[in-house]
Amino acid sequence: MRSSNDIKIRKRRKKSNPILKTLAVIGTTFLSLFLIVVITLCIVATALTVYVIKFMENSESVDIDLYNLDVMTTSFIYAEDPETGEQVEIHRMSQDANRILVSLDDIPQHVRDAFISTEDERFYEHEGVDFKRTFLAFANYFLHFWDENQGGSTITQQLVKNITGDDKQDPARKMREIFRAMNLEREYPKDVILEAYLNYIGFGGNTYGIQAAANKYFDKDVSELTVAEAACLAAIPKSTVQYNPLVHPENNEKRRNNVVLPTMLENGFISSEQYEEAINEQIIYAGQHLDEETGEIVEEDAVIQDWFVDMVIFDVARDFQKKYGIDTQEEAIAKISNGGYRIYATVDIDIQKEMEAKYLDNSTFAKETLSNPPQSAAIIMDYNGCIKGVVGGIGRKPNPMCYNRATMAKRSIGSTVKPISSYGYALYSDYINWSTVFFDEPIEVVKDWNTMEKMKWPKNYSNVWTGQRFFTYDALQRSLNTIPAQLVDQLTPKTIFDFMQNNMQITSLVAADADYSAMTVGGLTDGITLLELASAYQAFGNSGKIYKPISYYKVLDSNGNVVLDNTDNSYIQAIDADTAYVMNKLLQTVVYGPSGTGRAAKIDNVVIAAKTGTSQEWVDLAFVGVTPGYVSAVWYGYDEAYKYDEQTGKYVPNSCKDLYYSSAVVWKNIFGNIMTEKDSGTDFAENPNVLKLDYCTVTGLLAGPNCTAKAEGYYKPTNIPSFCNGDHSGTTYNLPGGETTMAPLETPESENTPSTASTIDLNSLPQ
Fold first, then answer.
1. Cα separation of 331 and 340, whole Å?
2. Among 434, 663, 391, CA closest to 531
3. Residues with Cβ < 8 Å from 68, sequence gap 6 or more?
4. Topology classification of domain 96-299
């Protein structure tokens, strides 16, 4: 048996090992903690792996093909260069995004290097994410190693963020960005990524992409940028406001010289010589030029888009509204501006420049500068309806997309209505011919519909009714009002109205215009635009055809697909070719006849058929000129046709009588050089159907063998008068409608106008 002493000794030994016991406890604790950490790390790693895999699975690839993406890009308007015949840019338009896509091959290496050096110097080394740069940017955020925050995003990451629009500030977004960038680098070569980045990056305001930036800040193509200019642009993306060279040039210069150029030098992108040259280069921005005498930089006046560009934009917007069902003009213009469209305009650049210059020169309109001058507008088109030039107002154009009096203002057109209304229809329907006889007498119209009281109407310019005998050509060249009134009365206002609306394509007529005043002297309810007036006159130089007037040929989208096409512009045969030819000859008498109201429009070696027009009280004056190559028209008058008279308390006509030169002179001043350059020595095409015959200057019938007083006239084969027998003792006249009647030889004469013996020698007219 064990003794009690042995038991005591054993107990004493057990009590003598507390260290071992403590170590055992500590070891067990650490082991437990280690196992817990390992298990926790495994759980976290597993969770993180699942989380990362989830992000990898949800991080869809990014399409960076900007040509297929719905990317807002700048639209361009082109026109034919008169010297080379090639299409040249005349205007560019952008609204939400001014972006012009450019190939990397067209971007100089030093421009690429400026951005790589500044934004991502290891761009060609990493696989989408520069972890070293990311860590340094994170550390600098807390420890401030550098004066400014260092961006951790690579060019690839920036491109991803810009294209996806995923810019939420949280870890999840950063994870998506990292994986998207890595995916992008696996799918696309570095140069493709760089090209997309340089086309997508913002440069302040609505300017995006390196090409648009080069245009905006330096008025240069990207291929023309110097090293200093490239560095200037590379400084902007850091903060498009703070480093905008047009807003804060000192900030841009500091970053350009202290950051961009030094990093380019450090990375071996430029030599020391290039560095020094760039540092010392004097930057000249768009809208500036260097004065050679003073050596100072001078600010230039802002250039406002011309009248033709405005018209093209408005016309394309109108057609976009129709094609795409767009509600407002503003929406349509926004679509054009942001769609990367290419618009091909009909403008003749030389003609437009000449017209704009004439409208900046007061001497075009008057000898003296008036304190309250009238306004004016002019337009010119060819015989395919292609508008070649337009100006909508005198003086410097106030702003883009402003009111254009040539295309928007509806005005009374005075006697320019006669060839497209009364005379036009009467000649077209064979109711009159060249030598139809009229008597200068008024008709009777209802003055008061309540009492049915009648009055004699209309007055002539001279305020005299002579009762004299006039032939068609003579009445037209003198612009008598009584003869058209007789025609409207005999043929009915509604018939003339229908002819104007359906044949001559005057679409702005209203039902109330089917009356005597509107159809006789152009007193239209709403008036018509100068564009519409000129378009109708196409018929008289174009064998009776009227083409829809157009300001552009076609519109292509960013992929080159035609979305609007005017190249197959159709026409209507408004009148037959014979009528058109005879009317052309009649209108030539307005310029070349001894009593023609448009004689002041004569231009050496240019054949002109024309008509003047003056509305009541000289409120509107117009002139339409028809030459072998063009139809052109000019209008002038006050914007407000009536003004308030404080003395009478009534509104009175805002007359512009004797304020400007005659409408014929104004037309010549505007278009004289153009016609001399473009139309000199040419003539209208002959019409073999129309007969040039001698007529009796007493009866208007064809001159018989016994007629001693005769002249030449032009006759449609469907309306040739009978022959005069030469016996004028009891005269038979060639009257409207082909009627003849016996009448005394002598008719009352007035001292205010020449006698009917005054005829013109048609041999003297241009043939």
1. 15
2. 391
3. none
4. Penicillin binding protein transpeptidase fold (1.10.3810)
Angle, nearest 10°, between helix axes 155-164 and 171-187? Answer: 110
What angle do helix axes 227-234 and 272-280 make, rounded to 10 degrees? Answer: 70
Q: 80 φ, ψ to 5°?
A: -75, 130
- Contact between 752 and 442 (Cβ < 8 Å): no
Helix or strand run (H / E) with residue 355 = helix 349-359
How far apart are the C-alpha atoms of 79 and 48, rounded to whole Å? 61
Strands 75-80 and 342-345: parallel
Ordered DSSP codes for 529-542 = -HHHHHHHGGGGGT
Tell me whether residue 136 is exposed, middle or buried, using C-beta atoms within 10 angstroms of its C-beta: 0 to 12, 13 to 18, 19 or more. middle
What is the distance, to the nearest Å, from the Cα of residue 182 to the centroid of all Cα atoms in its chain?
45
Q: How far is Cα 176 from Cα 193, in angstroms, rounded to an integer? A: 18
Tokens representing residue 234 in the block = 């590379």
Scan for tokens 């004097």, then name that residue: 282
């106008």: which residue's tokens? 753
CB 354 within 8 A of CB 674: yes
DSSP state of 257: I
Q: CB within 8 A of 121, min separation 6: which ones?
A: 263, 267
Residue length of the chain: 767
CATH class of domain segment(s) 387-546+573-678: alpha beta
The residue among 545, 537, 593 whose CA lies nearest residue 571 is: 545
pTM summary value: 0.84
Which tens digits make up the pLDDT trace of 217-247? 999 999 999 999 999 999 999 999 999 999 9
Identify the weakest region by mean pLDDT among 39-43, 214-218, 635-639: 39-43
Tokens of 626: 């028809």
What sign has the CA pseudo-torsion 746, 750, 754, 759?
A: negative
User: What ranges do the domains of the chain cover?
Assistant: 4-58, 96-299, 387-546+573-678, 691-764
State how beta strands 342-345 and 552-556 pair.
antiparallel
- Per the listing, tokens 């406002």 go with 304
